């Protein structure tokens, strides 16, 4: 809008008028911004999906033009084609390309989730014969509380269990984590915080060991530990073989996570007077805690499912063995393999139930790891907040006590100017009760 002053013969000099200038009409009206999705956008994907599934079923089971195994692929190709054609009816070329790649990415995620669900469902279905006989009232759940020492292939499903394999897995993976976690984090700290001419060599060796076959690790421990030191199969040798496989993944994952820590956090810590080790311990590691937890999970998931190195180093046994340094000790993956190799349906059911137990164990470990160290950097848990609040209350009491002591000393020195010099104020150190 424009404001101007009228002439003196038309109005007072102090009076003003406004008017809206005329704008030429636009040749093409600009496209209005639409909030949300229109009806066409909401029904395009479901309509294309329904049409593609119907066409796949028509070409497959109904007409027999394609075999049943090719029906999902044919339906997916038809879905992409129909989806692109429908989107092109009301969108431009850029939007069509965007929707096409979005459909591909969503389809890839759906395929991964579907395959994972099929694997878990197949394992649970095949092992449901064992789980259906487990009752916690009246009948002892022998599948989790006994071993296979006195159970044969022809015994019923209610006899025998996987206690020996569960104990072996927990001991072997526990020893492997005891070695892998500190050594892996220390190596990652060396690669990121210290560096030097040896850092490139170490990083190259770690990346090369990531692709090391598990059989090679088992043969290495078999030749260097069993043949030369222990002279027998044992769970400790299996733990060393698992450590060889877990360590490169742990180092590489921790290395990548520590690289993501901003450099200004390190510089701020050094600028405040902290040493390099103090910065690593109080700044770098807490910031990368969530990523380090993920690295531990990845290494554990890789090591807990290994079969070949355990077979070469720990051997096979049906008896419970709590001592990982003496005698054969089997693990859950190896026990599942031995069960499914049997021609007896009962033994195969035990094998699939063992695999399902291994899946459940990995899930429990994952949830525990996320609960222990999964919060974001800088976010405190409820327990940490309570501890910090209690510490603040203690600090407040100490500060108030020091203030009262100083005030009393100043008052005494002011009232008695001729008295001897007062004793210097006594400050309470942190942690001493006021």
Characterise this structure.
The chain has helices spanning 39-62, 71-88, 93-126, 128-131, 142-145, 163-194, 197-210, 214-230, 235-259, 263-271, 276-287, 289-304, 308-313, 332-340, 345-373, 382-415, and strands at 2-5, 16-19. The protein has a two-stranded antiparallel ribbon. By secondary structure, it is an all-alpha fold. Helix 9 runs antiparallel to helix 12 (289-304) and helix 14 (332-340) packs antiparallel against helix 15. The protein is built from 16 helices and two strands. The protein is 66% helix and 2% strand. The radius of gyration is 35 Å and the shape is flat. The longest helix has 34 residues, at 93-126.
Summarize the structure in short.
With 434 residues, the protein is mostly helical. It has 16 helices and two strands.
